[in-house]
Amino acid sequence: MSFLDRIRENNVWNPAAFRWWVVDGCRVGRIRHGLVPRLAAFAGTFIVEDDAVHLDPRLATFQARSAAMDEVLRALEAEGIVSGRRNEYYPVTRSFSEPPFLQIERAGVPCFGVRAFGVHLNGYVRRADGIWMWIGRRARDKQTYPGMLDNMVAGGQPIGISLRDNLIKECREEADIPRPLAEKAVAVGCITYTLEAADGLKPDVQFCYDLELPEGFTPRNADGEMAEFHLWPAAKVARIVEETRDFKFNCNLVIIDFLLRHGLIAPDHPDYIALNQGLRTPDPSYDATRIQPR
Q: What is the spatial distance between Cα 75 and Cα 72, in angstroms, rounded to a whole number?
């Protein structure tokens, strides 16, 4: 196994298995063909075509679209098609800077192939023998990816909160990092991937941050989502990423990005260029021109 394998594993999907989800003439997601007949039964909400499922244009406002989709998701939850509601809403949009067309409960985001956003923080300490990284282990009763290794702090990006405020909130909840320290986190870019999973499609963007921590700081989970934290040499973290699948899938990419930026994967590594390119693989077709139902 290799670093490049971790990137490839985050970009496995079959476009032929999906058709577009279109809102206000814009392609905002992808829906598995198998779900389409069920959606066709929601009269007044969807218009089904061979290559796309349109949200009915008569749902013309943010509020109307959001309310209609909430009804759909609650029905799909009752049937066991969607699970894991957290009463946390995500924007439905093609890009982070674009005003959202509507909001959708987090559990339904992969089902409709909506691009989700998140924040991930690399917490690290500089020692005489090099960089050490704080690594979390997810609680074993967590809804998703229980017991797997994780970045020190990570969380989805809900609607109505800035990236910076969300990061500070997640720092407090997941690692008990006080606000004055969390505010020192440095934005260092983002990673992107498109992954087909059991619950749908994840064409996601994760905004990455680095936070150099003082030697005496020890993280402590405050919301029950992390079971424990480990302070490990970066070389050990790199070895786990390269040789195992112990980390939650997208955390591998965040760590590879960290290793590249800090020179811990050197430019003479045989996959150096491929790794840099592979961390950012956007799907430009989400930005296509408007299309209307026929």
A: 5
Show Cβ contacts of residue 72 under 8 Å, excluding neighbours closer than 6 positions: 39, 42, 45, 108
Residues facing residue 53 across a β-bridge: 21, 48
pTM: 0.94
The upper half-sphere exposure of residue 247, i.e. CA atoms within 13 Å in the direction of its Cβ, equals 28
Packed helices 249-261 and 234-243: angle between N→C axes, nearest 10 degrees = 130
Decide if 224 contacts 143 (C-beta within 8 A).
Answer: no
CB proximity list for 60: less than 8 A, separation 6 or greater? 24
- Residues 195, 14 contacting (CB under 8 angstroms): no
HEC letters along 143-169 = CCCCCCEEECEEEECCCCCCHHHHHHH
Q: How far apart are CA 145 and CA 202, in angstroms?
A: 15
What CATH code is assigned to 3-9+116-278?
3.90.79.10
Q: Which CATH class is domain 15-114?
A: alpha beta
Question: Which tens digit of pLDDT belongs to each residue from 91-136?
Answer: 999 999 999 999 999 999 999 999 999 999 999 999 999 999 999 9
